[in-house]
Amino acid sequence: MKATYYGHSCIEFDFDGHKVLFDPFITYNSLAKEVDIKSILPEYIFLSHGHQDHVADMVEIQKNSQSTVVAILEMAAWARRQGVPDNKVIEFNLGGTLKTTFGTVKIVYAQHSNSTPDGQYGGAPVGFILRVGGKKIYFAGDTALTLEMKLLADLDLDWAFLPIGGHYTMDVDDAVRAAEFINCDRIVGIHYDSFPPIQINKEEASEKFSNVGKTLYLPAIGESISL
Ligand code: NI
Ligand code: MN
């Protein structure tokens, strides 16, 4: 089981051969120029919300891979409007748990805003809890620190992917508190460095997590980590 970082909040999991992509934003990310999106052929594409920096490459990757796009109801409708065939779109909503080929995925709360790139209502922004082969993984999407995260504390999460760049989402200090709220020791930082307002000091960030007994992982773009 591994996760490959494609920059910003774009992560591709490999669950025993099942490739699952989250929040594709690669060709417009100046830090991810080395990544060839033609080589990304997932079975599923999950969207946390509709801001461009989470969906920009969805259409092309979906076409190349014939993957299934999964999102909250209103984002699923947007995917259909982009030409994704109806049988390749799965919609669900907060509280729902989806059975997939690799495990289950539950939609959870995120404190953010949401609209689709075509300017329409995108439903709520969300995060996801993945249960795969006995492991539990939280992909937070874009979110501020919120007390709702405390609801995840007793899940015994193995890994959490948390935004750490500030400005549009939690910053490092709030992400440390979030890691405490969700009771998870292994954090992968996302949503940082891609644009000037979200640039961080990586050493300082790692230190802040280690000060509370937690580990911050910051894989390089294109790098994979074993989960
Ligand atoms: Ni956003
Ligand atoms: Mn964002």
Describe this structure in words.
- The protein has 227 residues and is an alpha/beta fold.
- It has one domain: Ribonuclease Z/Hydroxyacylglutathione hydrolase-like (Metallo-beta-lactamase, Chain A, 4-Layer Sandwich), CATH 3.60.15.
- Helices cover 18% and strands 28% of the residues.
- The chain has five helices and 14 strands.
- The protein has a seven-stranded mixed sheet with strand order 6-5-4-3-2-1-14, with helices on one face. Strands 7-8-9-10-11-12-13 form a seven-stranded mixed sheet.
- The longest helix is centred in the C-terminal third of the chain and has 11 residues.
- It is globular.
- The structure holds nickel (II) ion and manganese (II) ion (MN).
- The site of nickel (II) ion has 5 residues, from loops.
Keywords:
single chain, 227 residues, Metallo-beta-lactamase, Chain A, seven-stranded mixed beta sheet, 28% strand, binds nickel (II) ion
**How would you name the CATH homologous superfamily?**
Ribonuclease Z/Hydroxyacylglutathione hydrolase-like
Low-confidence stretches: none
User: Whole-number radius of gyration?
Assistant: 16 Å
> What CATH architecture label applies?
4-Layer Sandwich
How far the N terminus sits from the C terminus, by CA atoms, comes to: 6 Å
Number of strands: 14
Count of helix runs:
5
**CATH C-level class:** Alpha Beta
What is the helical fraction, as a range of percent? 10-25%
Question: What form results from the Cα inertia axes?
Answer: globular
How much of the sequence is in beta strands? 25-35%
Mean pLDDT: 98
What class would the helix/strand composition place it in?
Answer: alpha/beta
What is CATH's topology name? Metallo-beta-lactamase, Chain A
Order of helical and strand elements: EEEEHHEHEEEEEEHEHEE
